[in-house]
Write a structure and sequence with these properties.
The structure holds 2 protein chains of 2 kinds.
Chain A: H1 6-16, E1 23-26, H2 30-40, E2 47-50, E3 54-55, E4 77-78, H3 81-89, E5 95-98, E6 102-103, E7 109-110, E8 113-114, E9 122-123, H4 130-136, E10 139-143, H5 169-172, E11 180-184, E12 188-192, E13 199-204, H6 210-215, E14 222-229, H7 235-245
Parallel strand pairs in A: 1-2, 1-5, 5-10, 10-11, 13-14
Antiparallel strand pairs in A: 3-4, 6-7, 8-9, 11-12, 12-13
Helix pairs in contact in A: 1-2, 2-7
Chain B: H1 11-15, E1 23-26, H2 36-45, E2 50-53, H3 58-66, E3 70-75, E4 79-80, E5 84-85, H4 87-94, E6 99-102, H5 105-116, E7 122-124, H6 131-134, H7 141-144, E8 145-149, E9 156-160, E10 167-175, E11 181-182, H8 190-196, E12 199-207, E13 220-222, E14 229-232, H9 250-259, H10 263-275, H11 280-287, H12 289-294
Parallel strand pairs in B: 1-2, 1-10, 2-3, 3-6, 10-12, 12-14
Antiparallel strand pairs in B: 4-5, 7-9, 8-9, 10-11, 11-13
The chains are: A alpha/beta, B alpha/beta.
Protein backbone atom coordinates (compact mmCIF):
# COMPACT_ATOMS: atom_id res chain seq x y z
CA UNK A 1 0.00 0.00 0.00
CA UNK A 2 1.18 3.47 -0.79
CA UNK A 3 1.53 6.19 1.83
CA UNK A 4 -1.60 6.75 3.88
CA UNK A 5 -3.03 10.26 3.57
CA UNK A 6 -4.32 12.48 6.36
CA UNK A 7 -7.79 12.25 4.78
CA UNK A 8 -7.62 8.48 5.08
CA UNK A 9 -6.62 8.69 8.74
CA UNK A 10 -9.57 11.02 9.31
CA UNK A 11 -12.01 8.74 7.48
CA UNK A 12 -10.88 5.71 9.45
CA UNK A 13 -10.98 7.62 12.75
CA UNK A 14 -14.51 8.80 11.92
CA UNK A 15 -15.61 5.28 10.97
CA UNK A 16 -14.40 4.03 14.35
CA UNK A 17 -16.89 6.34 16.09
CA UNK A 18 -19.80 4.20 14.86
CA UNK A 19 -20.94 1.41 17.16
CA UNK A 20 -22.69 -1.46 15.47
CA UNK A 21 -26.43 -0.87 15.57
CA UNK A 22 -26.16 2.91 15.87
CA UNK A 23 -28.71 5.07 14.07
CA UNK A 24 -26.61 7.87 12.57
CA UNK A 25 -27.53 11.28 11.19
CA UNK A 26 -25.27 11.88 8.22
CA UNK A 27 -24.42 14.83 6.00
CA UNK A 28 -22.38 15.19 2.85
CA UNK A 29 -18.67 14.54 2.61
CA UNK A 30 -16.31 12.65 4.85
CA UNK A 31 -19.03 11.47 7.30
CA UNK A 32 -20.85 9.78 4.41
CA UNK A 33 -17.68 7.94 3.43
CA UNK A 34 -16.95 7.03 7.07
CA UNK A 35 -20.49 5.72 7.51
CA UNK A 36 -20.24 3.38 4.54
CA UNK A 37 -16.77 2.31 5.65
CA UNK A 38 -18.12 1.45 9.11
CA UNK A 39 -21.05 -0.44 7.57
CA UNK A 40 -18.69 -2.42 5.35
CA UNK A 41 -16.45 -3.39 8.28
CA UNK A 42 -17.19 -3.45 12.01
CA UNK A 43 -20.69 -1.97 12.10
CA UNK A 44 -22.91 -3.57 9.42
CA UNK A 45 -26.10 -2.87 11.35
CA UNK A 46 -25.65 0.91 11.41
CA UNK A 47 -28.71 2.70 10.01
CA UNK A 48 -28.35 6.06 8.31
CA UNK A 49 -30.73 9.01 8.37
CA UNK A 50 -30.11 11.91 6.00
CA UNK A 51 -31.33 15.44 6.65
CA UNK A 52 -33.24 15.43 3.37
CA UNK A 53 -35.57 12.75 4.74
CA UNK A 54 -33.95 9.72 3.11
CA UNK A 55 -33.80 6.84 5.56
CA UNK A 56 -31.20 4.04 5.46
CA UNK A 57 -30.41 4.23 1.75
CA UNK A 58 -28.15 1.73 -0.01
CA UNK A 59 -26.84 3.83 -2.89
CA UNK A 60 -25.06 2.02 -5.72
CA UNK A 61 -22.46 4.78 -5.87
CA UNK A 62 -21.31 7.62 -3.65
CA UNK A 63 -23.74 10.53 -3.65
CA UNK A 64 -22.52 14.08 -4.22
CA UNK A 65 -24.73 15.36 -1.40
CA UNK A 66 -27.78 14.63 0.72
CA UNK A 67 -29.94 16.01 -2.11
CA UNK A 68 -28.37 13.77 -4.76
CA UNK A 69 -30.99 11.46 -6.27
CA UNK A 70 -28.45 8.62 -6.25
CA UNK A 71 -28.81 8.61 -2.47
CA UNK A 72 -32.46 7.54 -2.70
CA UNK A 73 -31.62 4.14 -4.16
CA UNK A 74 -32.49 1.26 -1.89
CA UNK A 75 -34.12 3.46 0.71
CA UNK A 76 -37.12 1.86 2.42
CA UNK A 77 -38.51 5.25 3.49
CA UNK A 78 -38.31 8.68 1.94
CA UNK A 79 -39.97 11.64 3.61
CA UNK A 80 -39.01 15.27 4.20
CA UNK A 81 -36.75 17.30 6.43
CA UNK A 82 -39.25 17.59 9.27
CA UNK A 83 -39.49 13.81 9.47
CA UNK A 84 -35.72 13.33 9.59
CA UNK A 85 -35.12 16.11 12.13
CA UNK A 86 -38.00 15.04 14.37
CA UNK A 87 -36.27 11.65 14.74
CA UNK A 88 -33.53 13.56 16.56
CA UNK A 89 -36.01 15.12 18.95
CA UNK A 90 -37.67 11.75 19.51
CA UNK A 91 -34.37 10.36 20.76
CA UNK A 92 -33.96 7.95 17.84
CA UNK A 93 -30.53 9.13 16.69
CA UNK A 94 -27.44 7.82 18.46
CA UNK A 95 -24.73 9.78 16.65
CA UNK A 96 -24.34 12.76 14.33
CA UNK A 97 -21.39 14.31 12.48
CA UNK A 98 -20.70 18.02 12.00
CA UNK A 99 -18.23 20.27 10.26
CA UNK A 100 -17.63 23.84 11.41
CA UNK A 101 -15.95 27.16 10.66
CA UNK A 102 -14.96 27.71 14.31
CA UNK A 103 -14.77 25.52 17.42
CA UNK A 104 -13.92 26.46 21.01
CA UNK A 105 -12.49 24.48 23.94
CA UNK A 106 -15.95 23.24 24.99
CA UNK A 107 -16.79 21.99 21.50
CA UNK A 108 -19.21 24.80 20.72
CA UNK A 109 -19.40 25.56 16.99
CA UNK A 110 -19.91 28.57 14.76
CA UNK A 111 -21.27 28.24 11.24
CA UNK A 112 -23.17 31.55 11.10
CA UNK A 113 -20.94 34.64 10.93
CA UNK A 114 -17.39 35.88 11.37
CA UNK A 115 -17.57 39.34 12.94
CA UNK A 116 -20.68 41.01 14.32
CA UNK A 117 -24.03 39.32 13.63
CA UNK A 118 -25.54 42.31 11.86
CA UNK A 119 -23.45 43.15 8.82
CA UNK A 120 -20.80 40.51 9.47
CA UNK A 121 -17.33 40.42 7.93
CA UNK A 122 -18.10 36.94 6.57
CA UNK A 123 -21.59 35.55 6.36
CA UNK A 124 -21.47 31.74 6.61
CA UNK A 125 -24.27 29.35 5.54
CA UNK A 126 -26.01 29.14 8.94
CA UNK A 127 -26.88 26.30 11.30
CA UNK A 128 -28.98 24.14 9.05
CA UNK A 129 -29.37 20.90 10.95
CA UNK A 130 -26.15 21.37 12.94
CA UNK A 131 -27.75 22.89 16.03
CA UNK A 132 -30.49 20.25 15.92
CA UNK A 133 -27.98 17.40 15.72
CA UNK A 134 -25.75 18.81 18.48
CA UNK A 135 -28.72 19.54 20.75
CA UNK A 136 -30.59 16.29 20.31
CA UNK A 137 -28.45 13.41 18.94
CA UNK A 138 -27.18 10.98 21.58
CA UNK A 139 -23.62 12.16 20.86
CA UNK A 140 -21.87 13.98 18.06
CA UNK A 141 -18.50 14.04 16.37
CA UNK A 142 -16.88 17.14 14.87
CA UNK A 143 -14.65 16.90 11.82
CA UNK A 144 -12.40 19.92 11.37
CA UNK A 145 -8.89 20.84 10.25
CA UNK A 146 -6.65 21.76 13.17
CA UNK A 147 -5.46 25.35 12.81
CA UNK A 148 -5.84 28.70 14.54
CA UNK A 149 -8.49 29.87 12.12
CA UNK A 150 -10.78 27.01 13.19
CA UNK A 151 -9.72 26.39 16.81
CA UNK A 152 -10.46 29.72 18.49
CA UNK A 153 -10.46 31.10 22.03
CA UNK A 154 -13.82 32.79 21.47
CA UNK A 155 -16.41 32.11 18.77
CA UNK A 156 -17.79 35.00 16.73
CA UNK A 157 -21.22 33.43 17.20
CA UNK A 158 -22.35 30.32 19.05
CA UNK A 159 -24.46 28.49 16.47
CA UNK A 160 -24.29 24.98 17.84
CA UNK A 161 -23.96 23.79 21.44
CA UNK A 162 -21.02 21.71 22.58
CA UNK A 163 -20.67 21.73 26.37
CA UNK A 164 -21.63 25.46 26.32
CA UNK A 165 -19.90 27.10 29.33
CA UNK A 166 -18.71 23.79 30.83
CA UNK A 167 -19.90 21.09 33.25
CA UNK A 168 -23.68 20.85 33.74
CA UNK A 169 -24.43 23.66 31.27
CA UNK A 170 -26.15 21.33 28.81
CA UNK A 171 -28.30 19.92 31.62
CA UNK A 172 -29.28 23.48 32.67
CA UNK A 173 -30.32 24.17 29.08
CA UNK A 174 -32.34 20.91 29.03
CA UNK A 175 -30.50 19.69 25.93
CA UNK A 176 -31.29 15.98 25.55
CA UNK A 177 -28.06 14.88 23.81
CA UNK A 178 -24.88 14.20 25.78
CA UNK A 179 -22.76 16.56 23.62
CA UNK A 180 -19.58 16.19 21.59
CA UNK A 181 -17.68 12.95 21.99
CA UNK A 182 -14.77 13.46 19.61
CA UNK A 183 -13.12 16.02 17.34
CA UNK A 184 -11.37 14.44 14.38
CA UNK A 185 -8.70 16.61 12.79
CA UNK A 186 -5.97 16.24 10.19
CA UNK A 187 -3.26 15.88 12.88
CA UNK A 188 -4.87 14.24 15.85
CA UNK A 189 -8.04 12.85 17.37
CA UNK A 190 -9.29 15.02 20.22
CA UNK A 191 -11.84 14.33 22.91
CA UNK A 192 -13.16 15.97 26.07
CA UNK A 193 -12.12 15.65 29.69
CA UNK A 194 -15.08 13.96 31.42
CA UNK A 195 -14.81 16.31 34.44
CA UNK A 196 -13.99 19.72 32.98
CA UNK A 197 -15.60 19.14 29.54
CA UNK A 198 -12.55 20.82 28.00
CA UNK A 199 -10.96 19.57 24.82
CA UNK A 200 -7.89 17.37 25.03
CA UNK A 201 -5.59 15.43 22.72
CA UNK A 202 -6.29 11.69 22.73
CA UNK A 203 -4.51 10.26 19.68
CA UNK A 204 -1.79 11.52 17.37
CA UNK A 205 -1.38 10.41 13.78
CA UNK A 206 2.01 8.82 13.07
CA UNK A 207 4.77 11.40 12.72
CA UNK A 208 2.79 14.15 14.44
CA UNK A 209 4.14 15.65 17.69
CA UNK A 210 2.18 17.14 20.58
CA UNK A 211 4.06 20.41 20.01
CA UNK A 212 2.68 20.64 16.46
CA UNK A 213 -0.85 20.08 17.76
CA UNK A 214 -0.53 22.74 20.49
CA UNK A 215 1.05 25.15 18.02
CA UNK A 216 -1.95 24.95 15.70
CA UNK A 217 -4.69 25.46 18.30
CA UNK A 218 -5.92 28.93 19.25
CA UNK A 219 -6.58 27.74 22.82
CA UNK A 220 -4.73 25.51 25.29
CA UNK A 221 -5.53 21.85 24.71
CA UNK A 222 -5.36 19.29 27.49
CA UNK A 223 -3.70 15.93 26.97
CA UNK A 224 -5.27 12.60 27.88
CA UNK A 225 -3.29 10.45 30.37
CA UNK A 226 -3.41 7.51 27.99
CA UNK A 227 -2.57 9.42 24.79
CA UNK A 228 -1.76 6.99 21.98
CA UNK A 229 -0.78 6.83 18.35
CA UNK A 230 -3.84 6.54 16.10
CA UNK A 231 -4.39 3.09 14.66
CA UNK A 232 -3.26 2.89 11.06
CA UNK A 233 -5.94 2.03 8.50
CA UNK A 234 -5.92 -1.66 7.60
CA UNK A 235 -5.35 -2.88 4.06
CA UNK A 236 -9.02 -3.77 3.85
CA UNK A 237 -10.10 -0.28 4.97
CA UNK A 238 -7.78 1.33 2.44
CA UNK A 239 -9.06 -0.95 -0.31
CA UNK A 240 -12.67 -0.05 0.54
CA UNK A 241 -11.91 3.68 0.64
CA UNK A 242 -9.84 3.79 -2.53
CA UNK A 243 -11.63 1.31 -4.75
CA UNK A 244 -15.18 0.80 -3.48
CA UNK A 245 -16.62 3.71 -1.50
CA UNK A 246 -14.86 6.79 -2.87
CA UNK A 247 -12.92 5.59 -5.93
CA UNK A 248 -12.76 9.10 -7.44
CA UNK A 249 -11.34 10.62 -4.24
CA UNK A 250 -14.26 13.00 -4.03
CA UNK A 251 -14.13 13.36 -0.25
CA UNK A 252 -11.16 11.31 0.84
CA UNK A 253 -8.01 12.12 -1.09
CA UNK A 254 -5.61 9.18 -1.14
CA UNK A 255 -2.41 11.25 -1.32
CA UNK A 256 -1.24 14.16 0.79
CA UNK A 257 -1.06 17.34 -1.26
CA UNK B 1 -62.77 14.78 -16.25
CA UNK B 2 -64.53 15.31 -12.99
CA UNK B 3 -66.54 18.46 -12.84
CA UNK B 4 -65.19 21.35 -10.81
CA UNK B 5 -63.34 24.58 -11.21
CA UNK B 6 -59.84 24.27 -12.64
CA UNK B 7 -57.02 25.86 -10.68
CA UNK B 8 -54.70 25.77 -13.68
CA UNK B 9 -53.70 29.30 -14.54
CA UNK B 10 -50.97 30.97 -16.60
CA UNK B 11 -47.72 31.75 -14.80
CA UNK B 12 -48.07 35.53 -14.65
CA UNK B 13 -51.64 35.28 -13.37
CA UNK B 14 -50.61 32.89 -10.60
CA UNK B 15 -47.73 35.11 -9.53
CA UNK B 16 -49.94 38.19 -9.27
CA UNK B 17 -50.46 36.93 -5.70
CA UNK B 18 -46.85 37.90 -4.92
CA UNK B 19 -46.68 41.63 -4.24
CA UNK B 20 -43.72 43.82 -3.36
CA UNK B 21 -43.02 43.76 0.38
CA UNK B 22 -44.62 40.37 0.98
CA UNK B 23 -43.15 37.35 2.77
CA UNK B 24 -42.30 34.33 0.64
CA UNK B 25 -41.33 30.73 1.25
CA UNK B 26 -40.24 28.28 -1.45
CA UNK B 27 -40.03 24.50 -1.77
CA UNK B 28 -36.96 22.41 -2.45
CA UNK B 29 -33.48 21.91 -0.99
CA UNK B 30 -29.93 21.33 -2.22
CA UNK B 31 -30.21 21.06 -6.04
CA UNK B 32 -33.69 19.57 -5.96
CA UNK B 33 -37.20 20.73 -6.90
CA UNK B 34 -36.78 24.45 -6.30
CA UNK B 35 -39.40 26.58 -8.08
CA UNK B 36 -36.92 28.25 -10.42
CA UNK B 37 -39.24 29.08 -13.33
CA UNK B 38 -41.48 30.98 -10.90
CA UNK B 39 -38.42 32.63 -9.37
CA UNK B 40 -37.22 33.77 -12.82
CA UNK B 41 -40.68 35.13 -13.58
CA UNK B 42 -40.71 37.13 -10.34
CA UNK B 43 -37.28 38.56 -11.16
CA UNK B 44 -38.32 39.38 -14.73
CA UNK B 45 -41.30 41.25 -13.31
CA UNK B 46 -39.04 43.20 -10.96
CA UNK B 47 -40.41 42.07 -7.60
CA UNK B 48 -38.98 44.05 -4.65
CA UNK B 49 -38.56 44.14 -0.85
CA UNK B 50 -39.40 40.49 -0.18
CA UNK B 51 -39.04 38.88 3.23
CA UNK B 52 -37.89 35.29 2.82
CA UNK B 53 -39.07 32.63 5.25
CA UNK B 54 -36.72 29.95 4.06
CA UNK B 55 -35.27 26.66 5.20
CA UNK B 56 -33.14 25.23 2.43
CA UNK B 57 -34.34 26.84 -0.84
CA UNK B 58 -30.83 28.13 -1.54
CA UNK B 59 -31.19 28.75 -5.28
CA UNK B 60 -34.41 30.71 -4.91
CA UNK B 61 -32.85 32.83 -2.16
CA UNK B 62 -29.65 33.40 -4.13
CA UNK B 63 -31.44 34.38 -7.35
CA UNK B 64 -33.83 36.76 -5.56
CA UNK B 65 -30.94 38.27 -3.59
CA UNK B 66 -28.87 38.66 -6.75
CA UNK B 67 -31.79 40.53 -8.32
CA UNK B 68 -31.94 42.91 -5.34
CA UNK B 69 -35.39 41.63 -4.41
CA UNK B 70 -34.69 40.54 -0.81
CA UNK B 71 -34.90 42.86 2.19
CA UNK B 72 -35.05 40.37 5.06
CA UNK B 73 -34.56 36.65 5.58
CA UNK B 74 -35.75 34.38 8.33
CA UNK B 75 -33.84 31.20 7.49
CA UNK B 76 -31.76 28.28 8.67
CA UNK B 77 -29.17 27.52 5.99
CA UNK B 78 -28.46 28.70 2.48
CA UNK B 79 -25.50 27.07 0.76
CA UNK B 80 -24.78 25.25 -2.47
CA UNK B 81 -23.84 21.62 -2.00
CA UNK B 82 -20.61 20.98 -3.88
CA UNK B 83 -20.01 24.68 -4.60
CA UNK B 84 -20.02 26.74 -1.41
CA UNK B 85 -21.61 29.91 -0.11
CA UNK B 86 -24.47 31.65 -1.94
CA UNK B 87 -22.35 34.60 -2.97
CA UNK B 88 -24.93 37.24 -3.88
CA UNK B 89 -26.99 36.42 -0.81
CA UNK B 90 -24.01 36.64 1.54
CA UNK B 91 -22.81 39.83 -0.09
CA UNK B 92 -26.24 41.32 0.54
CA UNK B 93 -25.90 40.38 4.22
CA UNK B 94 -22.29 41.53 4.54
CA UNK B 95 -23.09 44.94 3.02
CA UNK B 96 -26.15 45.35 5.24
CA UNK B 97 -28.72 45.30 2.43
CA UNK B 98 -30.28 42.04 3.64
CA UNK B 99 -31.20 41.68 7.31
CA UNK B 100 -31.21 38.18 8.75
CA UNK B 101 -32.80 36.16 11.51
CA UNK B 102 -31.10 32.79 12.03
CA UNK B 103 -32.59 29.46 13.06
CA UNK B 104 -31.74 25.80 13.05
CA UNK B 105 -33.56 23.85 10.34
CA UNK B 106 -35.85 22.29 12.91
CA UNK B 107 -36.43 25.66 14.57
CA UNK B 108 -37.48 27.20 11.26
CA UNK B 109 -39.72 24.22 10.50
CA UNK B 110 -41.30 24.49 13.97
CA UNK B 111 -42.15 28.17 13.37
CA UNK B 112 -43.85 27.27 10.08
CA UNK B 113 -45.58 24.36 11.80
CA UNK B 114 -46.91 26.63 14.54
CA UNK B 115 -48.54 28.77 11.84
CA UNK B 116 -49.77 25.74 9.89
CA UNK B 117 -51.24 24.02 12.92
CA UNK B 118 -52.89 27.18 14.22
CA UNK B 119 -50.85 27.23 17.44
CA UNK B 120 -49.54 30.31 19.30
CA UNK B 121 -46.12 28.67 19.62
CA UNK B 122 -44.28 25.41 19.08
CA UNK B 123 -41.96 23.81 21.65
CA UNK B 124 -38.69 22.21 20.61
CA UNK B 125 -35.50 20.90 22.20
CA UNK B 126 -33.04 22.66 19.90
CA UNK B 127 -31.59 26.20 19.59
CA UNK B 128 -31.61 26.59 23.40
CA UNK B 129 -28.71 28.47 25.03
CA UNK B 130 -27.09 29.50 21.73
CA UNK B 131 -26.73 32.84 19.94
CA UNK B 132 -29.62 31.82 17.68
CA UNK B 133 -31.95 32.71 20.57
CA UNK B 134 -29.72 35.26 22.29
CA UNK B 135 -28.46 37.58 19.53
CA UNK B 136 -31.14 39.69 17.86
CA UNK B 137 -31.36 40.04 14.10
CA UNK B 138 -34.18 42.26 12.84
CA UNK B 139 -36.78 40.61 15.05
CA UNK B 140 -37.47 41.45 18.70
CA UNK B 141 -35.59 38.61 20.41
CA UNK B 142 -38.36 38.14 23.00
CA UNK B 143 -40.87 37.67 20.19
CA UNK B 144 -38.79 34.99 18.49
CA UNK B 145 -38.39 32.43 21.26
CA UNK B 146 -38.58 31.82 25.01
CA UNK B 147 -37.13 29.12 27.25
CA UNK B 148 -40.20 27.92 29.15
CA UNK B 149 -41.17 25.32 31.72
CA UNK B 150 -43.61 22.65 30.67
CA UNK B 151 -47.00 23.27 32.32
CA UNK B 152 -46.90 19.60 33.36
CA UNK B 153 -43.72 19.97 35.36
CA UNK B 154 -41.78 17.57 33.14
CA UNK B 155 -38.98 19.65 31.77
CA UNK B 156 -38.15 22.84 29.92
CA UNK B 157 -38.22 23.58 26.22
CA UNK B 158 -37.63 26.42 23.81
CA UNK B 159 -40.88 27.85 22.48
CA UNK B 160 -40.83 29.58 19.09
CA UNK B 161 -43.46 31.91 17.68
CA UNK B 162 -45.33 31.22 14.41
CA UNK B 163 -44.14 32.42 11.02
CA UNK B 164 -46.86 32.73 8.43
CA UNK B 165 -45.61 33.44 4.90
CA UNK B 166 -47.91 35.43 2.62
CA UNK B 167 -47.13 33.13 -0.29
CA UNK B 168 -45.54 29.71 -0.77
CA UNK B 169 -44.17 28.85 -4.22
CA UNK B 170 -43.62 25.15 -4.78
CA UNK B 171 -42.51 23.00 -7.70
CA UNK B 172 -43.72 19.38 -7.79
CA UNK B 173 -44.08 16.42 -10.15
CA UNK B 174 -47.71 16.41 -11.21
CA UNK B 175 -51.11 17.80 -10.40
CA UNK B 176 -54.67 17.52 -11.63
CA UNK B 177 -56.86 20.46 -12.56
CA UNK B 178 -58.49 20.46 -9.14
CA UNK B 179 -55.06 21.18 -7.59
CA UNK B 180 -54.11 17.84 -6.03
CA UNK B 181 -50.31 17.71 -6.12
CA UNK B 182 -47.93 14.75 -6.11
CA UNK B 183 -44.17 14.63 -5.70
CA UNK B 184 -41.78 11.67 -5.80
CA UNK B 185 -38.55 11.41 -3.81
CA UNK B 186 -37.65 13.52 -0.80
CA UNK B 187 -40.20 16.22 -0.07
CA UNK B 188 -38.10 18.97 1.60
CA UNK B 189 -40.37 21.20 3.73
CA UNK B 190 -43.26 21.52 1.29
CA UNK B 191 -45.99 20.21 3.59
CA UNK B 192 -45.12 22.59 6.43
CA UNK B 193 -44.67 25.56 4.07
CA UNK B 194 -47.99 24.99 2.30
CA UNK B 195 -49.92 24.59 5.54
CA UNK B 196 -48.41 27.78 6.92
CA UNK B 197 -48.75 30.10 3.91
CA UNK B 198 -51.78 32.24 3.15
CA UNK B 199 -51.52 31.53 -0.58
CA UNK B 200 -49.98 28.43 -2.19
CA UNK B 201 -48.86 28.44 -5.83
CA UNK B 202 -47.62 25.17 -7.31
CA UNK B 203 -45.91 24.58 -10.63
CA UNK B 204 -45.66 21.02 -11.96
CA UNK B 205 -43.93 18.95 -14.59
CA UNK B 206 -47.19 17.31 -15.72
CA UNK B 207 -50.91 17.94 -15.57
CA UNK B 208 -52.75 14.64 -15.22
CA UNK B 209 -56.37 13.55 -15.57
CA UNK B 210 -58.48 13.48 -12.42
CA UNK B 211 -58.47 9.68 -12.20
CA UNK B 212 -54.64 9.43 -11.99
CA UNK B 213 -54.02 10.83 -8.53
CA UNK B 214 -56.58 8.66 -6.66
CA UNK B 215 -54.75 5.55 -7.94
CA UNK B 216 -51.83 6.34 -5.61
CA UNK B 217 -53.22 8.90 -3.19
CA UNK B 218 -50.40 8.22 -0.72
CA UNK B 219 -48.08 10.07 -3.11
CA UNK B 220 -50.16 13.23 -2.80
CA UNK B 221 -48.13 15.82 -0.93
CA UNK B 222 -50.76 18.56 -1.13
CA UNK B 223 -54.48 17.94 -1.50
CA UNK B 224 -56.38 20.54 -3.50
CA UNK B 225 -57.76 22.19 -0.37
CA UNK B 226 -54.25 23.50 0.38
CA UNK B 227 -53.54 24.74 -3.16
CA UNK B 228 -54.66 28.03 -4.68
CA UNK B 229 -53.17 27.86 -8.17
CA UNK B 230 -51.43 25.33 -10.43
CA UNK B 231 -49.12 26.29 -13.28
CA UNK B 232 -47.91 23.81 -15.90
CA UNK B 233 -44.15 24.37 -16.20
CA UNK B 234 -42.20 21.38 -17.58
CA UNK B 235 -38.55 21.65 -16.49
CA UNK B 236 -39.83 24.33 -14.12
CA UNK B 237 -37.19 23.44 -11.54
CA UNK B 238 -34.28 23.80 -13.98
CA UNK B 239 -31.37 24.20 -13.21
CA UNK B 240 -32.31 22.15 -10.12
CA UNK B 241 -33.72 18.66 -10.68
CA UNK B 242 -36.97 16.80 -10.08
CA UNK B 243 -36.79 13.21 -8.80
CA UNK B 244 -38.02 10.77 -11.44
CA UNK B 245 -37.89 13.41 -14.19
CA UNK B 246 -34.48 15.03 -14.57
CA UNK B 247 -31.19 15.62 -12.78
CA UNK B 248 -29.96 19.04 -11.77
CA UNK B 249 -27.96 20.75 -14.52
CA UNK B 250 -24.51 20.75 -12.93
CA UNK B 251 -22.91 22.64 -15.83
CA UNK B 252 -25.49 25.43 -15.64
CA UNK B 253 -25.18 25.68 -11.86
CA UNK B 254 -21.42 25.90 -12.26
CA UNK B 255 -21.78 28.62 -14.88
CA UNK B 256 -23.97 30.62 -12.55
CA UNK B 257 -21.60 30.05 -9.64
CA UNK B 258 -18.68 31.40 -11.65
CA UNK B 259 -20.75 34.42 -12.75
CA UNK B 260 -21.87 35.10 -9.17
CA UNK B 261 -18.36 36.15 -8.12
CA UNK B 262 -19.27 39.70 -9.12
CA UNK B 263 -22.54 41.59 -9.42
CA UNK B 264 -21.87 42.71 -13.03
CA UNK B 265 -21.26 39.17 -14.31
CA UNK B 266 -24.31 38.00 -12.34
CA UNK B 267 -26.34 40.74 -14.03
CA UNK B 268 -25.08 39.59 -17.43
CA UNK B 269 -26.07 36.00 -16.59
CA UNK B 270 -29.55 37.16 -15.57
CA UNK B 271 -29.86 39.29 -18.68
CA UNK B 272 -29.17 36.28 -20.87
CA UNK B 273 -31.24 33.71 -18.99
CA UNK B 274 -34.02 35.79 -17.44
CA UNK B 275 -34.55 39.29 -18.83
CA UNK B 276 -33.89 38.44 -22.48
CA UNK B 277 -36.35 35.53 -22.32
CA UNK B 278 -39.98 36.43 -22.93
CA UNK B 279 -41.27 33.52 -20.88
CA UNK B 280 -40.49 30.01 -19.61
CA UNK B 281 -40.88 28.50 -23.09
CA UNK B 282 -38.32 30.78 -24.67
CA UNK B 283 -36.01 29.94 -21.72
CA UNK B 284 -36.34 26.26 -22.60
CA UNK B 285 -35.72 27.07 -26.28
CA UNK B 286 -32.55 28.91 -25.30
CA UNK B 287 -31.35 25.90 -23.29
CA UNK B 288 -31.89 23.59 -26.31
CA UNK B 289 -33.80 20.32 -26.28
CA UNK B 290 -30.61 18.24 -26.41
CA UNK B 291 -29.44 19.72 -23.11
CA UNK B 292 -32.78 19.03 -21.45
CA UNK B 293 -33.04 15.48 -22.78
CA UNK B 294 -29.53 14.72 -21.51
CA UNK B 295 -30.76 15.48 -17.98
CA UNK B 296 -33.62 12.96 -18.12
CA UNK B 297 -33.27 10.22 -15.54
CA UNK B 298 -33.66 6.47 -15.63
CA UNK B 299 -37.27 6.23 -14.40
CA UNK B 300 -36.56 3.07 -12.41
CA UNK B 301 -33.59 4.54 -10.53
CA UNK B 302 -34.83 8.13 -10.41
CA UNK B 303 -31.31 9.21 -11.33
CA UNK B 304 -28.55 8.77 -13.91
CA UNK B 305 -25.73 6.47 -12.85
CA UNK B 306 -22.12 7.16 -13.79
CA UNK B 307 -21.37 5.41 -17.05
CA UNK B 308 -25.00 5.65 -18.10
CA UNK B 309 -24.93 9.28 -19.16
CA UNK B 310 -26.73 10.02 -22.39
CA UNK B 311 -24.11 10.36 -25.11
Amino acid sequence: MSEISRDEFMAVAAAREFRDGDVAFIGTGLPMVAAYLAKATHAPRVKLVFESGIIDAAPRELASGVGDYRLAYGSPKIAGMSYALSLLQGGRIDIGFLGTAEIDRFGNLNSTVIGPYRQPRVRLPGSGGANDIASMAGRFVVICRLDRRHFVEKLSYLTTPGFLSGPRAREAAALPGSGPSRVITDLAVLGFDPETKMMRVEELYPGVTLEQVHERSGFALGVADDIAEALAPTDRQLHLLRHVIDPDGRYVVAANV
Amino acid sequence: MRSGISKIVPLEAALSAVEDGMSLTAGGFAHSHQPMAMTRALIRRGVRRLTLMGVAECWVAEFLAAAGAVEKAYFSNFMFEGFGRCRRFVEGVETGRIATEDHSHFGMICRLQAAGLGLPFMPLRAMTATDIVEVAGFEDITQKSRFIASPFGNGRVTAVSPLKPDVAIIHAARADAAGNVQLFGATSVIEEQARAASTVIVSVEEIVEADVIPRQPELTILPALLVDAVVHLPFGAHPTGVFGYYEHDAAYLGEYYAASRRQDSTDAFFRRWIHDQADHWSYLDALLVSRLLALRVDPALGTIMTGQRHV
